[in-house]
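Justification of computing resources. Each target in the renewal requires a structure prediction run like the one illustrated here; the chain below, 461 residues long, is used simply to show the kind of job we budget for.
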Amino acid sequence: MSRRGQGRGGFAVAPDADDFTDLVARVDDIVDPDEVRRVVDGLPSPVRRRLFDGWDWRARPGQAAPDGDWRVWLIMAGRGFGKTRAGAEWVWARAREVPGARIALVGGTIEEVVKVMVDGVSGLAATARTGEYARWSASRGCVEMSGGCQAFPYSAERPDKLRGPEHHYAWCDELAKFANAQAVWDNLRLGLRLGVAPRVVATTTPRPTPLMRALDADARAGRDAVVLSGGGTRENDALPPGFAEAVTGLYAGTRFARQELDGELIADVEGSLWPRDVIEAARQSGTLAREELVRVVIGVDPPASVGGDACGIVACGKRADGTLFVLGDYSVRGMRPEGWARAVVRAAELWGADRVVAEKNQGGDMVESVLRSVEAGLPVRMVPAVLGKAARAEPVAALFERGTAKLAGAFPALEDELAGLTISGRYEGPGRSPDRADACVWALSELQWGKKGAEPRVRML
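Resulting structure tokens:
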């Protein structure tokens, strides 16, 4: 779509029928696209310009300003999601509502404010509507906007510059990478005291900084009038064809992908047995073939009830040089005993497992009976859980720290549970119990310290 005009986001002339391709693509599942074109072609030129200057119909859910009485809107999303566009459009909406508003623009540096937030491809100048403008004036040190509004740039390198000025609104871009982030945030919030509803929007790719963790926690708990939205790189269909697939293929399942592409805030738990940097250092690229392994064990942490926790099912193997590998996570949830038992057998058959190790405490003889009812020849060994989950996990975590144990791929759900196990014995990961992590610990413990004699493998018939 060709866009020209006084504001770089406006039309110099009324758009023609070809300009409505995007709109038609959004509604062609609802109504006849030819009918849409006919109706839109018949609209007066000013109405047509206003339609295509509008943001509401183009904004994805994570980009649309939330309803309600909030003070802080945190847009935490992956790269290329459209965070900058959402921030710029929100600032313009406030500028139209409050002529003469004073707006703070906070970036990592003044140069980043000007190059990204003002003059960038999704910045204030580019998103101006027909007849609007946003011009950076170096001599005045501000961005002059139509309607008499002024936007003042601030650098995270100089938090004290925010101590005195007052603003109606503020936009922070890439808050998670700010130097002096807490001082910047505190000074900015204290200066938001003009008008009847001062607010701030923060657009950022997540990083587990103290400020980001605090804002995320406030939003999820409904505290301090903080709201959260976001999304992943793949949601932006305006990116070059194949870009999202290419970067996802390179980094799929890694912490980098979950943070930088999916927009997840992945924070280390204090006292974690598996800090995230240890998990990433243990990750191996590529896959392992069964022929490369001298022994494979399936670890099982059976659920206490059908509607309770998951059944942890994790395959692990040992190479001739003694290196241990997590091979796959086959855990299941919400299944009756026969269902999860079949999942265990499938995992054992897939890897030609030498042994299935299952926790005895959850169900005791019933667990072994269920497994053998599905596959009579399954080489099952029941193990008693004498120690707590964290105590059992600690020596296994040490294997990862020494480089003796590795991850043969990416297993996000399992990794989140491992990261949630702490030295103190608490579990601070997802869900009520680390079922996947416990199954993994059982399997790796068997490989490292269990019985070493040759045993029959499970084979597909």
